[in-house]
Design brief:
Layout lengths: L1 H31 L6 H35 L4 H28 L1
Helix pairs in contact: 1-2, 2-3
Length: 106
């Protein structure tokens, strides 16, 4: 469990910095194309990307932790079960969560 906490602490700031970087690059490209980048819009975009990143990291870690416990109790190979489930739930969950955030903020 110590390894999981340590891994979570390492991954979270990297993912958040990556989401901020992607948001800034998207805002710069949008500004170059002539779209309005008001401070209000910039703040909303940054908040949406940071919240969705935190949500995605949390969901993936929870699925991985609880799924691995379940799989080991059933004496199954975790790679066969956890990778597809984690990917599918994270993809669908992120799309739904991102849609809800965009709908809420805009």
């Amino acid at each position: 469990m110590h390894f999981v906490k340590h891994f979570f602490v390492i991954i979270s700031p990297i993912a958040i910095m990556a989401s901020i970087y992607i948001s800034v690059m998207a805002i710069i490209l949008a500004s170059l194309k002539g779209f309005n980048a008001s401070p209000d819009i910039v703040a909303k975009i940054m908040l949406i990307t940071i919240l969705s990143t935190i949500f995605l990291i949390t969901v993936i870690f929870l699925i991985a932790i609880f799924g691995s416990i379940y799989v080991f109790k059933k004496n199954m190979n975790p790679d066969d079960l956890l990778i597809p489930i984690t990917t599918s739930v994270a993809d669908l969950g992120t799309i739904v969560f991102l849609m809800l955030l965009v709908r809420f903020f805009f």
